[in-house]
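User: We ran a pulldown and think these components assemble together. Before we commit to crystallization trials, I'd like a predicted model of the whole complex to look at. Sequences follow.
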Amino acid sequence: MPRHPRLDPLADRYAARTHGMKTSEIRALFSVVSRPEVVSLAGGMPAVTALPLDAVGSMIGELVSGMGAQTLQYGSGQGDPRLRERICDVMALEGITDASPSEVVVTVGSQQGLDLVTRVFCDPGDVILAEGPSYVGALGVFQAAEARVRHVAMDEHGLIPEALEEALLDCRTNGDRVKFLYTVPNFHNPAGVTLSEPRREAIVALAEKYDLLIIEDNPYGLLGFEHEPLRALRARNNQRVIYLGSFSKTFSPGLRVGWVLAPLAVREKLVLATEAQVLCPPSLTQYAVARYLDTQPWREQIKTFTELYRERRDACLESLAALMPAGTAWTRPEGGFYVWLKLPHGLDAKLMQPRAVNAHVAYVPGIGFFADGNGREYMRLSYCYPEPDRIREGVRRLARVIEAELDLHSTFDAVDTGTFRQVSGAVPGHEAETIVGPANRDTGKDDRP
Amino acid sequence: MSETAIPSSAAAEEVDRHALRAVILAGGLTFEREVSLSSGTQVWEELVRAGVDAEIRDADAGLLPGLAAAPADAVFIALHGATGEDGALRAVLDLAGVPYVGSPAAACRLAWDKPAAKSVVRSAGVTTPDWVALPHSTFRELGAGAVLDLIVARLGLPLMVKPASGGSALGAQKITRVEDLPAAMVSCFAYGDTVLVERFVEGVELALSVVDLGDGPEALPAVEIEPESGVFDYTSRYTPGLTEYHAPARLTDDVSERAAALAVRVHEVLGLADLSRTDAIVTPDGQVHFLEVNVSPGLTETSMFPMAVEAAGHELGDVLARLLALRAGTTR
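Assistant: Here's a predicted model for the assembly, 781 residues in total across the polymer chains.
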């Protein structure tokens, strides 16, 4: 009998939906990010050290020493009532003034909220419409639910209503069951763009016209640099929009507290689903968030965060304009964490990644933000975590990497095999030109020296 | 496969492992960092189980001061990729007078350079697929089309394209169509400045581990690799269940012996020490072809060196502790 036939004696028993769960080269290359020599423009980690850590520490200590009987105990599946009240106050800042605490379900980060919503609505084979590109964590949830994702094009003003309508009509023609539109309207992850006011109206109108449910994922809405938050989609329609919120970017991602705001009938199913999944969200972290909102100057803290992120955004955009080779384009975020960068024609961000690791700079290849294999010419840059000088150094390294890749392509693009460009560059269903409007074209001139 | 000469457990017990203090180097700043961390963790668990006082350290700015402040009897290098395998770190350990398990710096430099190692191995009479190794500048200066045409004309198809150094199959691709070759070159050059293009040899993939526990290098049972996808790439290597392994390999005694002899020969002609893993292919006619050798073989839960040790009837921890004991206090 041969030994070690497979290393995993259960290999033939896994559910079909786990077949995509494999070790990947991309993930391996990311492991160097933890080394201080590497400038990571990859992870979207909030700058939690900007919090008043001593005050937060004292607050949490008191919650345990003074209220341990409640904070260390099981809680309600729907979440702590006091926190749900305060969540309604937070949502009011983005125009949602009619929310009731009874419509709020507290979740383990908004990621669990998205998972619950997807479980409640989607059967295998159902279609979910999502921006192209789309949040990678959402794509993972949709894949686990065995739903099919159809991407809808975006530009610098966010999701394109005409493209959404076209997708809805196509799906109707094909007999596809569209369960919902998933959208990140503010400071989109990864595209960095924000859905414009007219388009918000247009998309809500399309939802009415086509009986469309919208999942509005809004973790970054309060982190705008240049204007007050735009009214949420949920503020415009309280029946067709389910809203996902999070304290991960405005307070702490480590606490894992998010929420879903949904009509009562949906809320009922979400509560049952969450009880089956986690029984209840963690009591201690819910109390911590509620106490933070009650006792700490959290609105001022959000201003502190936005000032810090604005400075880092500026460092990133200025460096990109100064250093990137011709043919590179990028978005100009007005808030949030991300710049979406398009490489010169033919370059592939995933294939280029080893060179970037060698140069000690990290980014996320664009292909991860598409469910259909698109996005090879793109990458996401996160400016939220590194200090401005590190961001400048990271962009400098990245520019050299891109220049080296261009040099390589100048050698091999000329090879007359007839199909090389197809292999390395253009991809089927190429909508790349319309995904986002590059910031360095906004001024109508080339900003490079 | 003949019995190996690994000392019995009783002999291994002669070493006072409880007196041994080992530092395991894992991590590093290479593409293979994750694999190295996984190897390092496995080595740590095995050594602790074998009674060794072991700790894991990264190869970073804290390493030399750390070794000076708390000297180890010997260092175990579980680093994969450059620095750990190219001889550089070992040269520094030599300068610092720190004993380590594994091959000396000069031998590592040779083994790390796959084309150079192939040349030496072929000169010693070992069969290895025909190859050419070229830097990007050659393609730029002479014209990529002309050079690629020549390569295909001489080596034929299919071809293996891989970085001239590095492991874990990162950047390696099998090319069956000439039109895919330029894209493969672009992809491969992202890993390093020189590409090794090798004639693809169809056959059974083998991992041939060698260990030297003081009585000279001995081959462990060959491990046969059967990836579900047909290609033993990074995903197939490190996702349990995607590859079938057979240890010992399903070979005739004659082929087994030739494979073992090849692995020992490679170990010797390249000047390697303590442990190595040679990757080879057996063609249907029973001929064994050398592909490359690793001076710091993977020691993860899905790696072939630990499988070979187990197939030989030994505990990995015993073997690693024995290697440490042999190197303890010896400098090069």
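Residues 28 and 247 of chain B are 30 Å apart (CA to CA). That may be worth checking against your pulldown data before setting up trials.

User: Thanks, that helps.
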